[in-house]
Amino acid sequence: MNTVNKAGSPSRIGTYKESSLHRVLKYRYSDSGETEVAVGDYVCDGKSGAGELIEVQTGSFGPLKEKIERLAINEKIRIVFPVIITKYIEVYNKEGELLRKRKSPGKGSIWDVFNALLYAPQFCKQPGLTLELVLLDITEKRKDDGKGTWRRKGITIEDKIPLNWHESIIIKKPQDYYLFIPFKKEETFTVKDLGEKAGIPAHLAGKCLYVLNKAGLVDRAGKQGNAHVYQKKAAR
Question: How far apart are CA 216 and CA 209, in angstroms?
Answer without folding.
Answer: 10
